[in-house]
Amino acid sequence: MKKVLVVALVLVLVAGLITGCGGGGKQPAGDAGKQPDAGKKEPLVLKAGHSVAETHPYHLGLVKFKELVEQYTNGEVQLQIFANSSLGAERELVEGMQIGSVDVVLSSTGPIGGFAPLMGVVDLPFLFRDEQHAYKVLDGPIGDKLMGELEKAGIIGLAFWENGFRNVTNNKREVKKPEDLKGLKLRTMENPVHMAAFKQLGADPTPMAFSELFTALQTGAMDGQENPIPIIYNNRLYEVQKYLSLTGHFYSPSPLMISKLTWDKLSNEQKEAFKKAGKEAGAYERNLIAQQTAEQVDKLKEKGMVVTEVDKSLFLEATKPVYQQFESKFGKDLIDQIINTK
Ligand code: EAX
Q1: How many domains does the chain have?
Q2: CA-210 nearest atom, ligand 1
Q3: Domain-embedded: residue 2
Q4: Ligand 1 center to residue 55 CA distance, Å?
Q5: Average model confidence (pLDDT) for the chain?
Q6: How much distance in Å is there from the Cα of 105 to the middle of ligand 1?
Q7: Are the beta carbons of 179 and 250 closer than 8 angstroms?
Q8: pLDDT on residue 5
Q9: Which residue's CA is minimally distant from atom 5 of ligand 1?
Q10: What atom of ligand 1 comes closest to residue 85's alpha carbon?
């Protein structure tokens, strides 16, 4: 009897060893005796900042980008989006990418010429005939060249998104022709090309972060400003501006950027995911800009703005001297390449 018990005990012990001893769970073949996996890695959570309202295509496009990045990286990389300059104004956001305090930024090219001088070429007045011309240039070799300039500043450009064609607003008078701008205290972005253009038009330009603009207009420190329709509407500038002139004087692209410090933490697969998501969300954002631009002029009239169609050729002719001022900075060849892109 005793012998039977001993044999049964030995058989139970041997069976336990084969099936991974009492942990209940089956160990995959070859893992017997190893520690169980440490479990999934913690996701990399990135901070993404922009300067405008959450109803603007910048924000809606970044929400789409967040969804796609999390999908394409299986949740390994996640995004937190900070709107309305809550992580800083655009220039501060770019500085934040350089030191690694901000990971992802969607910004107009306004302040970027200060970090990548050649990028300033896109800010020349009336350089782009229309959106399709801009996309042909920015989504091709010239755009790649400009993005390459960003890398020298520690920033990776993922794709060109869109702010749109910029229009003048003010509180003093209807602006129908360049002479009507004379003496107007006009806020511009921190951009020497934009300032030179408005000086050429006879205005009195002051560079200022977008986060300070609403108050400056409300207090009368500034008479006017210039921005695309979706900015004027979504950031409620109609509450502090009476006159809107559809000058379309600058095309404002908005590169989606990631800090190189952050970029270098990503695997090759994650980098490909970011590039894919950046392009797809960029197309989505450009469509939203087009949709809102088409819808919001009438909405601005309903909000009480006096909207004036202008003869753009008058403003184009009046700003031509700005090209001579910046030809040596950007190179006549690059400017001609952009103008001649069909
Ligand atoms: O990029 O500063 C501006 O006027 C910009 O158009 C705005 O921040 C969106």
Answers
A1: 1
A2: 2
A3: no
A4: 15
A5: 92
A6: 13
A7: no
A8: 59
A9: 108
A10: 8
Using the mean position of ligand 1's atoms as its centre, give its distance from the Cα of residue 48 in Å. Answer: 16
Nearest to residue 270, comparing CAs of 139, 82, 79? 79
Asked if residue 8 has pLDDT above 90, the reply is no
Assess whether pLDDT exceeds 60 at residue 95.
yes
Decide if pLDDT at 39 tops 80.
no
Which secondary-structure segment (H or E) carries 13?
helix 2-18
Concatenated DSSP letters of 168-227: EEESS----SGGGGTT-EEEE-S-HHHHHHHHHTT-EEEE--GGGHHHHHHHTS-SEEEE
pLDDT in tens, 216-246: 999 999 999 999 999 999 999 999 999 999 9
**CATH code of 298's domain:** 3.40.190.170
Q: Is residue 90 part of a domain?
A: yes
The average pLDDT across 188-202 equals 98
Give residues (CB < 6 A) around ligand 1. Answer: 51-52, 90, 107-108, 110, 163, 189, 210, 227, 231, 252, 254
Q: What is the rounded CA–CA span in Å between residue 288 and residue 267?
A: 31
Ligand 1 centroid to Cα of residue 227, in Å, is 7
Q: Domain range spanning residue 129?
A: 44-340
pTM comes to: 0.88
Residue 28 belongs to a domain: no
Rg (CA), the chain: 28
Whether 18 is covered by a domain: the verdict is: no
Residue 241, helix vs strand vs coil: coil
Contact 95, 307 (CB under 8 A): no
List pLDDT tens digits, range 99-149: 999 999 999 999 999 999 999 999 999 999 999 999 999 999 999 999 999
Please give the Cα distance from 261 to 154 (Å, whole number): 8
In whole angstroms, give the CA distance from residue 113 to residue 115.
5
Write down the pLDDT at residue 41: 87
